[in-house]
What we know:
The structure holds 2 protein chains of 2 kinds.
Chain A: H1 2-18, H2 30-51, H3 70-104, H4 107-122, H5 126-136, H6 141-148, H7 163-187, H8 191-199, H9 204-233, H10 236-241, H11 249-258, H12 266-295
Helix pairs in contact in A: 2-12, 3-7, 3-9, 4-7, 7-9, 8-9, 9-12, 11-12
Chain B: H1 2-33, H2 45-49, H3 56-86, H4 93-105, H5 108-118, H6 121-124, H7 128-151, H8 155-164, H9 169-180, H10 182-198, H11 201-205, H12 211-219, H13 223-261
Helix pairs in contact in B: 1-13, 3-7, 3-10, 4-7, 7-10, 8-9, 12-13
Amino acid sequence: MSLTNTVPESEKTRELGNSRRKFQFPFPLLPFFLFVGFFLVWPLSKVLIASLKSNNESWTFSNYTPLFHGIYFHAFVTSIRIGVVTALLGALIGALFAYVIDAYAGPRLTSILDSIAAVFANSGGVPLAFTFLASFGANAGLIKLLKSLGWDLYAEGFSIFSFTGICAVYIFFQAPLMVLVFKPALSGLRKEWKEANTSLGGSPWTYIRRVAIPILFPSFIGSFLLLFAGGFSAYATARALTVGNVPLIPLIIGDLINGNVISDKTHLGASLAIGAIAIAAVAMSGYVWAQRKSSQWRR
Amino acid sequence: MKINLSKYSTIGLVSLLSLIIFVIPYSASLEYSLRGKFGKGHDLTNYLWIFHQEGFLSHLSLSLELGLLAGLLNLVLMVPTATFLHLSLQRYKSLVDFICILPLMIPVVSLAVGAEYAMPSFLQNSQMELVFFFVILALPFTFRVLDSALSAIPLKTLVEASRSLGASWPATIMRVIVPAAKGGISSAFFLSFALGIGEYTITSLLHWDTFTTWTVDISQQNVLGSIALSTFSFLFAIALLVTIALVSSNRKKKQKELGETS
Lengths: 299, 262
């Protein structure tokens, strides 16, 4: 929580420093700040407070100890692994798609493909899980077809209710999301830079290595972190797919607040929620850094 | 020649990849959803099944209502905010930008935990609770869309003209800004509308029963039916968004042509 707050604070003071002479409260933004304050900041601060309270209302850090041992620690590791693996695969595949769309598709086709990517990126959740069941479940036509061709996925130990299965499902929204968030950066590469490279005697390879990659790298990292945060905290798809086979932090938190497990562990639910936010906050500070870096080139 | 070869091989490779990753699974699921009774033959049985379920209409209308409210509230809140950020309050833009990214980064489950702790009980008992959280969750998408829509119009000139002719701020926003940026504003509306209809995490964790959670519940009885429903909603969303994209790109073209002739 503290991490998420440091960035806007510092930014605010810097901004105010520029114009201290005539500071006025931005009244037109008041509804926005009130709304976000009440429905975003206030609930999260309540979680933070609850995570620091013991059952008899005194302050304690003891709710945080389970996070570093046993099943909860294991669940954090698994969720982070899922986030990293799916974000990396999604980012690479999505960047490739984005490159081809940006380089070769006309404006009309681009807007169609953008819309399709938007649908795919938001198709995470329950419908995606069902679609995936239909495509890769033991009874699906595709699996049967592969089997008749001599490749029995299930005999090789594949299951959609496993770590690999979940990773495979997540790619379906991670890669299209990458197309959406990374393509603006690609379109921001100016033609003049390529021409300058050529006229200065650089090969296409020099252009990629010395111009395109250094400029796109921050955007790529930023998009990767965004995808990571999404994969780490995805709830609906995982809920619909796993029957408790793979321990994931969002599922455990959900169980705790639904009272499916042990009801006097509500403070544990709060500390797990703060733990999840802390990991998201690390990703987010990287994202803010990357945004700042990449906006240098978009003036 | 060498360049052309690499161009076509790249396009070919990517098409093959998208075929494997997206087209084949989704057609497989389409085939699956069309299977007839007891898995024999192919017909529309599964697509019709959902209509005969008890509660279909009530849940669907509840979801549509929530989505509509979320879309409207989002516009009421964000159109003025984005407008002022473009005019006199530009120095707050990076702060608002940052806040609007938060819902994308913060795990929704954590926010749901917070909602259980923090919301007063009169809100917990009202459907508006969901609408408010849908608006929060839609912020990352809608703010960006509105922001770029407002950058594309001569906002400052329009506002100055309208204000100096004596229009109030609400009138300026409703009668000048909204018509001028209606493309971006309508896609911001549709984004939060769609999010409201499909939202599952907060809805189920706060113990509400909308179309999405209802679908999950009844899918336990008929997996084929729920796959059909997913496929249908997916195709419907693609058709809707592609149509919007085509219409708006046509309109842009027309505007450009008009601008060139006048």
